[in-house]
Amino acid sequence: MTTETQTIRSANPLTVILTSGGFIFVLRVFLGALFVYSAINKVGDPRGFGVAVRAYEIIPIALSNLFALSVAWGELVAGVLLVLGVQTRKAAAAILWLILSFVIAITITIVRGLTVDCGCFGNEGGHSTGYGLIIRDLFLMVTAIMVIHFDRGTLSLGRLSGRKG
Amino acid sequence: MKFIKDLAGGFVLLIIAAVIGVAQNAVRGNPVKLILEAPRVAERPADETHVDRVKSESDEPAHHRDPSDVSKEQLQEMMATGMTFVIDARGEEEYTEGHISGAINVPYEKFIDYYQALTDYVPRDASVVVYCTSITCDLGDRLIIELKLDGYENVVLYRDGWEEWSESDLPVETGAWEY
Partner of A40 at 20 to 30 A CA spacing, among A71, A122, B39, B81? Predict the structure, then answer.
């Protein structure tokens, strides 16, 4: 830890709280659990998620199922690793990539004037693409970046087993 | 630098997860096809948006029609044989307010919810006509893609859809589809 960081922390109690091991632990488990929950429907019903992917009209139809399967399992694996605290920074980075792809896809649909079911939690319906989803995803991106930067392995399996995240 | 390394690690993790997903799909009971053969449907320029299509309609009404599209006269003939299934791709509310007589409702946006009912009701070798609101509605095109990917081969679009049909004093019904 650098002297500069120590100075900032001592000067700003909010920064101390937001970067504390306990708070980052909460963010880590929240983000991981959210993505595990999101992945369950998709992994169980890849056909349905393929329909949701095709609705965006971005990925070529030929590759839509492969992409859907990859996203679903990416969410599941990264989410489980985050909850457990194993390879934490890489798992958070994987989730950052996923969210970035969601933001790009939603932005493209807005620009093209399409409204589609977002498929955020599989093909469950009820959530259409729009600016609200982009704001939600940006919030999740900030959460992932905070985990990547500030995770200290609090209550993580990786730390208990002596591995670094 | 560390952040870049983490991002690279995250990307590798996603690739590993994708491999796990593909492997799991291979051993599951009802695997999805990984590489799909894109069905032939009415094409439109890749950079055209839904809004562009609406705008261009007044200038060149037939611009986005496909040779396989059917007219209302052809649809009437097909319906008269009693061998054709007509599918309304619009939402439940619009269908309930009014639809072509005998048509069933498979809203594109709820395709998966209706999937079981659709496959129970409509055999895959059946003659199927899909319609939406009008030429400016692309739900019919999208539903046809899903139907063809699922093995329905004889599917065509009545592109002028509900607006033309309802204004032509042809048989219509109201009420939800009971399946």
Answer: B39
